[in-house]
Every structure is written in C-alpha cells, then in structure tokens.
Amino acid sequence: MSYTIGPFAFATVHLIFFAALLVIFGLAWILGRIKAIRVTDAVFNVVAAGLLIARASFVIRYFEMYAAAPWQILNVRDGGFDLWAGVIAGALVAGYEIFKNRPLAKPLLISCVVGAITWGSLNGLYQHKYGQKLFIPEVRVTTLDDHPVFLHRAYRGQPVVMNLWATWCPPCVREMPLLEDAQTRYPGVAIVIVNQGESATLVREFMEEQGLEIDQNLLDRNNDLGNTIGSFALPTTLFFDKHGMLIDTHVGEFSAARLHQAIQAITRE
C-alpha cells in the first residue's frame, strides 16, 4: 500500500502514476527523435491540462470545505482529483495539439494510450495482489485500558474510517482535529484511530495536550495492522463500508474535502 524511500513515503498508487508518466514521456522522446518533431512538448501540455482541470474540478465541487483553509487547494498530496474531468481536458488538448501540427497525431496518441495502458495494468496488478485484504483485517488491538479489540469483529456492520497514526508524526497531528470533527459531522460512521507502536500513557498525554477527544482510540503496539495491510508510512487512512469492504485508502495527510469524498463513498447505498 505504501513504500518509504529514505525520509520520503509514497503510496503505491502514486508510484504507479509516476511509472506511467515515465512511460509516456520516455516513449514520446523516442518517437520524437524518430519523427524529428517535439512530441514531449505536446505530451506535457496534455498531462498538465489534465491534472490542472482534474484538480480544479475537485476543488470547485468541495469549495466550501477549502474556503476555511484555502492554502489546502495547493496541497495536491491530499489526492483530490476528478479523473474524468482530467481525461476530457487532456483529450481536448491532445486534439488541439494535433490540429496545430498533424504529424503529431500518431506519436502523441501512441504515447498517451501506452501510458494509460501502463497505468491501468499496474493498477490492476496491484489490486489483484492485495485482493485478499479488501476487508477489515483480522487484527487484535487494545483499548487504552488494555481491553482486547478484534477489528474485523468490532467494526463490521457500519461504515468505518480507520486512521493509523503516531504522536511523533506531524501530518498525523495536523489531521487529528478533522477526525475529531468527523465524529459529530458523520454520526453513522465509526471514526477509529489506531496508534502504531506507542504506549497508552503517551497517547493519553498527547490527547490531553492537544485537547482532543476521539472515542474510538486504540493501540497497536506491534504495528500488526500496518504490516497486515502493507503500509509502512504514517498517516494511513482506510475507508470501509458497512460490509467491512475496503473502498478507499489514503496515505499521507488528507484535507477536509478529501475526507468528505471518501466518507461519501463508504456511506453510499
């Protein structure tokens, strides 16, 4: 689900996207050399337009949530993109580039199509690899009072937002108020925070210092949950529907808009 490279953490889906970009631009460069035309410039315009419009569409849909913290609009790491808006924008720009320079048609289309196939294939392999982990894991954690909780038993039957975090993780700390607020905003959803590898005393002190009250506050002293789902970066947030099926994941800090989008997905009938 995620990988760490030195001090940096990457979601697997982001690495897949970067791999697809590498294929697109690498192929565009090769075809451009063969055809003696600047294919990479056209590909850049297509990709840039797609990403910008995908982001703009998402921000417009959830503008009220960004209004309270407008700087979050620039934080594209929150994953807020509308796929089909970006695809349509990219296709329109590709058509314009071809209209301006007809010889671009074949190499531009080949680069974009092969890149899209690469993204789809790698994403499909990733989903297949982790297909057996699409439900709430059979992991034993504890409450702050050291009572055992079996996640797959305790949280089936209701939508669940499950956040893996630690007190030493700055992005985890920043998103805690959003999770606290979500308890009130989404009363039918279980908001569960699962601390990774720290003691009950440390977690209690942290919550008191931050003035936070999150009801479902659990401890995973041996990092069993992170190891089971294959995520080695914090924070990681898992979104399960009422059947216990994993619908969405987010590695890294999320915005209020991204959290709302994911909760909409798990509460949809």
Automatic annotation (TrEMBL):
Q: Which CDD domains match?
A: TlpA_like_family
- Tell me which residues make up the Thioredoxin domain: 130-268
What subcellular compartments does it reside in? Cell envelope
Question: What GO MF annotations does this protein's record show?
Answer: disulfide oxidoreductase activity; phosphatidylglycerol-prolipoprotein diacylglyceryl transferase activity
**Lineage: superkingdom:** Bacteria
Membrane-crossing residue ranges in chain numbering: 6-31, 43-63, 83-99, 108-126
Q: Which GO terms describe its cellular component?
A: cell envelope; plasma membrane
Name any Gene Ontology BP term: lipoprotein biosynthetic process
Looking at the Swiss-Prot or TrEMBL record, what is one Pfam family this protein matches?
LGT
| PANTHER family hit by this protein | PROTEIN DIPZ, THIOL:DISULFIDE INTERCHANGE PROTEIN DSBE
Protein name per UniProt: Peroxiredoxin
Which species is the source of this protein?
Aliidiomarina sanyensis
- List the taxonomic lineage: Bacteria, Pseudomonadati, Pseudomonadota, Gammaproteobacteria, Alteromonadales
